[in-house]
Amino acid sequence: MGRAIPFPSQNGKKKNLSDYLIALSVIACSAVLLVALTIALSGYQLKKPTRTLQIKYEDVTGVKVNSEVRYAGAPAGRVIAMRHLTTAERQSSPNKKEAVIVTISLNADVPPLPDDITASLGADSMLAPKFVSLSAGTPGRKTLPNNAVMEGHLGSGLDEILAQAGPLVENAKKLIDNLNLTVTDLKSDLGSFMPKLGPLVDSAKVDIDKVQKAIEDLDQVETQAGTFLETADTFVSSTDKSFQEQLRQLHVTLLNLKVITTHAKTLVGALAEKPNRLIFSGKAAKLTPEAQIIKSEKPLPGRTP
Length: 305
Known about the structure:
Shape: elongated
Helix content: 40-55%
Order of helices and strands: HEEEHEEEEHHH
Number of strands: 7
Radius of gyration: 55 Å
Largest sheet: 7 strands, mixed, barrel
C-alpha cells in the first residue's frame, strides 16, 4: 500500500502572497522616492513656468540650476536654465564681459517687476549657497515684459571683494617699487645737499633773531594800542554821560519854556484888551494847568474857557 503525497496548506499560500506584495510595495516606494529626488536635484519642473526673466552675468560662480531667486529678500522663484553666450552675442552686447545668461522663473504671487530693478548674486553667509537677488525697484514705473532680457551685476560679497583686490594689489606693488626709487633718489639728493646746509642754518638763525626782535616791537605796539583804546573808551563813556545829562537839562528847560510862553500869551492878550490892568487889578484869570500844557502835542490857549 503506497504513502499519501502531502499537499501545501492554504495558510502557506497566503503567507507567500503577502511577502510578494510587501516586496513590490517597497520597490514601488523606492522608485517613487528616486524619481522625486532626481526631479529635485535636477531642477526639472513638472509644470511649465509662465513668468520668466533672462539675466546676463559676467560670472555666476556658486549659482546653478534650481538655485533660489529672491525678490526684495523674499523667495520669488528658481533658476531653470543657464547657458554660455555665443561669440556673436558677446560682441553685440554693450558689456563685452558678459559671458553667461541665466533664465529664472517667477512665482505667480510675485508682483510685476518695475523696469529699474537690479539683478545681482547674493548669499546669506560665506558657506551658504548663492541665490539670484532682485531689488524691489520703484513702484509706478513701467514694468518688464515676460521673458525680458536684462543686465545683471555681481554681488557685493567676499568673492567680489577678492576679485577686485587683485588689481589693487598689483597697483600697490607698482607704487612700492616707485617709492623705493624715490627714496633712493632722495638719499642721493640729501648727500649733495647736506654740505650746503651749514651756511643756510647760520643765515636762518640770524633771520630768526631779527624776526624775534620784530615780534617784541609788535608786542610793545600792541600794549600801547591797548592803553589808547582803554583811554578812548573811558573818554567816550564820560562824554556820553555828560551829553545825556545836558540833553536832560535841555528837555526840562524846553518844558518850562512851553509853559511860560503859553501863560505869556494870556498876559499879553489881557494887556492888549485893557492896558489899565497894569494899575488896577481885576478878577484873576483861570490859567491852563501846567501838566496839561506839558502833555499836549498842540498849542493850547493860556486861559481855561
